[in-house]
Amino acid sequence: MGRADPEEGQLPAPVKPPDGGWGWIVLLGCFVITGFSYAFPKAVSVYFKELMKDFHVGYSDTAWISSIMLAMLYGTGPVCSIMVNQFGCRPVMLIGGLLASSGMILASFTTNIIELYLTAGVLTGLGMALNFQPSLIMLGTYFDKRRPLANGLAAAGSPVFLSSLSPLGQVLLEKFGWRGGFLIMGGLLLNCCTCGAVMRPLDMGMKRKMEKAQDKYEAKEMLPIGGKSEEGISTTDGTKKAKKAKKKPKKGKKLLDFSIFSNRGFIIYTISKFILVLGLFVPPILLVNYAKDTGVPDTEAAFLLSIIGFIDIFARPACGMVAGLKWVRPHVAYLFSFAMLFNGLTDICSARASNYTGLVIFCVFFGISYGMVGALQFEVLMAIVGSQKFSSAIGLVLLIEAFAVLIGPPSAGRLVDALKNYEVIFYLAGSEVVLSALFLAMATYCCLNRGKKKEPPPEKNPSAGGGSDTEEAESDVQETEEHSSDNHQPAHSTDNTMVAASEEANHVAEEQSGEGGGCPEGDGEVLARDGCNTDQTVERDSF
C-alpha cells in the first residue's frame, strides 16, 4: 500500500475498497492500535504518584511523560507518512510495535526522570506513532461507503483500553510496583506487531494477471496452432508493453504532498484541531490526581477513567452510525463542531465538582462528548482531502497538533503546582475546546459553504474528478477493460473502420462546402476531432 510500481515508477490504478471481507480484520487491528495509542498515555498517569515519591519531582515533571508520548504520536506524523509511502504500512507497523515495547521495558530499569522521558516518552511514543497512522491509512483503503461506521468502531478501541488499562495499572502498581507494571505493559505492547502483520495491502496485481491470461487466450484463438501461436503471444505482450511505455511516462512518487495546503477546508480543520488539542487531553490526565487530592481513595479514583471509557465505548460507534446517514454525512463538519462544543461545555460546567458523585456525573457527560470527538475527527479529515492524500494530510496535521500537545498538559500541570486549584484548569481547558468548535463551524459556513453557493454548478465531465473513491476506482477499471478490448480487435477490422469513417467524413465535408461551410449541430462532436469548429470552414483537404 502506498508503494510505487517498480516497473512503471508510479502508483498503480486505485482498487475499489471492498467495504468488508478482510477489511473487518484490518478494522480489528486498527481497534487495538487506536486503543494503545490514545489510552496508554492516560493510563500511565496511575503511576505518577509513585514516580513523584521515588524521583522527588513535582506533578508537572511527571506530566511530561504523557505529554512526550502524545507529542511523539503527533509530531512524527510527517516522518511516518514518508516511511509509509516508501515502504508500505505493514513493515512500518512491525517496527513500531518493537519500539513501543522496548521503550516500556527499558523504562522499568531507569534511575531518574530524564531516562523516563527518553524511554517511556520518546521511544514508546515513536513506536505507537508508527502503528497509529498506518492503521488509519489502511482503514481508509479498505472502507469507503461504510467508512464513518468503520472509523467509529476503530475509535472505540480507545475507551475499551482506557477502561481496562487504568484498573490493570492500579493492580500492577499495588502488586509489582511501578517498575514491574512498566515491564508487563511493555509485554502487552508487543501485540502491536500482531496487528501490523494483519495489515495486508489490497492486491493490485490480480487485475494484471487476469489481463495477461486473457491476452494469451485470445491470441491462441486468433492465430493458427503451432509455432506462430507462441510468436503471436510474444508479439501481443511486446506491443502491450510498448503502448504502456508510451502512454505512461515515469513519474516520481511524492513522499509528502504539500499541495493539500491549497485546500481551504484543510487549513480550517488544522487550525481548529490545534486549538482543540490545547484543552482536550487536560481533564482526563488531571482527573485521577484531582480525585485523590479531594480525598477519594486510589482505587475509586482510577475507576473514574473506567467510567469515561465505558461510556465512550458506546458513544463512538453510535456517533459513527449517525455520521454515516445520507442526510448527515455531507454536513459531518457541523456534527464535529457540535461534539467539540458539547465537550467544552462539559468541562466548564463541571469545574466546581468537589465530591465523588459530581466527578462521576462529569465522567458520564465527558465520555459521551469525548467519544463523539474521537469518532469524527479523522472522518472529517478523510472527507476533506480524500483517501489518496490522507497519508500526507494526517502526517502534517499531527505535526501541527504536536505543538499544542506540548503546550497544553504541561502548562496545566504548572498551573496546578502554582495555584493548587483545579477549577481554573477546567475553565481554561473548556474555553479552548469551545473556541475551536465555534471557529470550525463559523469558518466552514462563511468560507466554504458561501463560496460554493457563489460558484456556478460544474458541468458534468466524465474525465473530471470529484466523485467518491469507489466511483473513481470503478471508472478506472472500466476504462482499462474498454482499452483492453479495443487492442484485441483484428487488424483488418480496424482498417475497415478507419476507411468507413474517412469516407463518411468526406461526404459530410462535401455537403457542408456546398451549403456554404460551417459545422451542423448534429455532427459537431464528430467533426471536432478533425479540427472543425463553429468559426472555421471545413475543407476537403483537412480530411
Automatic annotation (TrEMBL):
One of its GO terms (molecular function) is monocarboxylic acid transmembrane transporter activity. Residues 452-543 are annotated as: Disordered. Residues 469-479 have a biased composition (Acidic residues). One of its GO terms (cellular component) is basolateral plasma membrane. It comes from the Eukaryota. Signal peptide: none annotated. The chain crosses the membrane at residues 21-40, 63-84, 91-110, 116-137, 181-202, 266-291, 303-325, 332-353, 359-378, 390-412, 424-448. Gene3D superfamilies: MFS general substrate transporter like domains. Residues 487-499 have a biased composition (Polar residues). It is a multi-pass membrane protein. Keywords: Cell membrane, Membrane, Symport, Transmembrane, Transmembrane helix, Transport. Pfam families: MFS_1. Residues 23-448 form the Major facilitator superfamily (MFS) profile domain. The keyword Transmembrane applies. Belongs to the major facilitator superfamily. Monocarboxylate porter (TC 2.A.1.13) family. NCBIfam families: 2A0113. This is MOT3 protein. It comes from Thalassarche chlororhynchos (Atlantic yellow-nosed albatross).
